[in-house]
Amino acid sequence: MMKIGFDAKRAFLNYTGLGNYSRSVITSLHHYFPEQEYFLYTPKTVQNARTAGLQAGANLHIRQPAIPILKSLWRSRLVVPRLQQDGLDLYHGLSHELPLGLQKTGIRSVVTIHDLIFLRYPQYYKLADRKIYEAKFRHACNNADRIVAISEQTRNDICNYFGTPAGKIKVVYQSCDPAFTQTATAVQLQQVKAKYQLPETYLLSVGTIEARKNLLLVIRALALLQKPLKLVVIGKGTAYLDQVKTEIARLQLTDRVLFLEQVPFADLPALYQLAHIFLYPSEFEGFGIPILEALYSGAPVIAATGSCLEEAGGPDSVYVHPQDEQGLATAIDNITNNSEQRGQMITAGKKYAALFTERRQAEQLMAIYRELTGKV
C-alpha cells in the first residue's frame, strides 16, 4: 500500500483545463486503485457537483493550512513538513509545480507539465509572469524523480527548453470528463436547443476567447463559406474579444455568431452533440481536451497544425494551418457537402477517442508510482 499526495488546489478551485485534469487524475486513481491512500493538499476546499468525487472515501484525506493567511506560502513551501508527517511515499504536483524542499525529504516526486506555451509564445504573457512560470517549471523539472508530459509535443518542449533528459519524461495522455461519453436523450437535446435558442445547424468553438485560441481565423473563414452556417462560441472573454467583435461587424456576420458565457457544465455534452462541426484552430496547445470532448460527442473536428492537436484528434480529423482562413473554410465546406465523409469522421473519431480513457491514464500513472517507490 502506498501513501500518495497531490497538489489539489486546482482540483477544488479551477473548473477548466488544469482543474479538470487534477480531478480526473485523483478520482480515477481512487476508483481503480482503492487500496492506496490518497492525500489532497489544498489551501481551500469547495463543495459542489464538480468536486463531489474528491470528498468521498475512507482513503481520501484532505489537508489544509492551519493558518489561512499563509495559504500561498503553505502550498509552495510550508506544506513539506505536513507531507512528512503524513508519511507520504510519493507526491504528485499536478500542475507544473513541486514545493520547495521536497527533494530533501526522501519522498519520491512526480510533476505533470502540461505545456511550455509561455516560452513558445512569450508575447501572450506579462514579463513578470513568464519569469515566475519559468522558475517554477524549471525547478520542478530539475527536482522531480519523474516528469509526466501530457503529449509528445510537451515532452519534446521540456527536452528542448530545459535540457531535461528524455528518459526522465513519460507521456501519459489525459482523458476528458466521462459526461462526454454519455449520449443525451432527444428530450435533453431539445431542452438545450431551446434554452440557448440554437440554430438548426451550427459550427462550435469552445475555449477561452484569447489570441492563442485563434477565434479570429474562424470568423474570417465563416465569411468565406459556401453556405451561411452559424457559429456558436462558448468561452470566457478576454480583451481579445473586442478584436473578434470588431471583425464580426466588419464582415457583417453579427446575425451568424452566437456567444454563450457561463454555460453550466451539465449542458456542454448536449451542445457538442448538437454541433455540425467542432472547430479548434488554436495556434498552440499542450494537448487539447475540447477535441476529445468533441470526438466523444460525435462532432467532426477541424483543428490546426503546428502543435499537438494531431495527437488529440487522431488521423481522421482534419487539420489546417492556423493562419489559413481559406483552408479552414474549404475544410468546413468539404465536410458540409459530403455527408459520407462526415459520417466516417464521426465513427472514426469515437473509436480514436476511446483510446483516451481515465482507466488507461490511472494505470499508467500507477505504474510510474510503483516504479519509483518499489511498492504495490
UniProtKB/TrEMBL annotation:
InterPro entries: Glyco_trans_1, Glyco_trans_4-like_N. Keywords: Transferase. Coiled coil: none annotated. Residues 68-178 form the Glycosyltransferase subfamily 4-like N-terminal domain. The keyword Ribonucleoprotein does not apply. One of its GO terms (biological process) is lipopolysaccharide biosynthetic process. It comes from the Bacteria. This is Glycosyltransferase involved in cell wall biosynthesis.
